Amino acid sequence: PTAYGTAENAFSLPQNAIVIGGDLTVVTAWNGTTNTLSLGDLGSATRYLNAVDLKTVARTALTITGYKHTVAEFLRALLAQTGTATAGVARLRVSYVVQGRILSNQG
Question: How far is residue 81's CA from residue 75's CA, in Å, rounded to a whole number?
């Protein structure tokens, strides 16, 4: 995401995808007053992450729900902040399977 306060497309999932793992790793801590990231989809803005603190270098596992994305869609990330951050780097990793598909890769 490049804007604060607006959910933006972060990761594309194919039809029938089920997220089975993943994490958000803060590599360089944000330096604003408060900085958080939520990750979800159009149905639930916080399905996988809910306001994870970006001010601490750490790894946060995604919340695994078993939800099947019945249509192709994007996972959406929402960055929220107060104060102006001038530093901060995070890496998002998402693992998923596609129900009904025998072999698949994306990349």
Answer: 20
